[in-house]
Amino acid sequence: MPEKKKVRLTPVDIKNAKFKTVLIGGLKKSDVEAFLEKVAHDYNEVLKENKDLENMLTQMRVKALEADEIKTDYEKLKDKNLILEGEVEALRKENQELRNKISEQEDLIEALKLENAEKDAIISELKKQLEEKKDNQIPAEIIEIARKTALQIKQKAVEEVEKAFQNFPEPLKVKIKPIIEKVKKELIS
Known about the structure:
By secondary structure, the chain is mostly helical. The protein has a domain at 97-188. It is built from four helices and no strands. Helix 2 packs antiparallel against helix 3 (140-166), helix 2 runs parallel beside helix 4 and helix 3 (140-166) packs antiparallel against helix 4 (170-188). The longest helix is centred in the middle third of the chain and has 107 residues, at 29-135. The chain starts with 10 loop residues before the first helix and ends with a helix.
């Protein structure tokens, strides 16, 4: 059975309260009315304070809910931040690895350039010798052999460059492909 809501006295009920008077041993009417007036006034103040406290409590509950939402959002952001920090660290490591590989490949390219320069010097010397021998009327066979030898040396150098290029990681291949093409072109010319 539903519980009946108790009806509370209001300040007006207190003010308007009437009492029967008795001649013997009764209370002084003005004192009772003054007391009831004071009780009604104080009771009214208590009701106002209670209402204010209820309003404050409601506001505090709303603020507590907002604070909980902010805390939840903060925790989510904190978790995302940890994830992002991990991703950033992984990217830093990957970047450093790529820089190391680029450095290694640049060193390899420099070594190949030096080797190519040495081979060019050999080829140049062979050409010079061939020219000298040609002036001495050496048969065309020697010249052809020297030309073929020079071509084989260049082709071998191109193969070494292409072989080295195949070992590069994919992102690095894109960056240094123009350099490799230039080196190959220099070797072939």
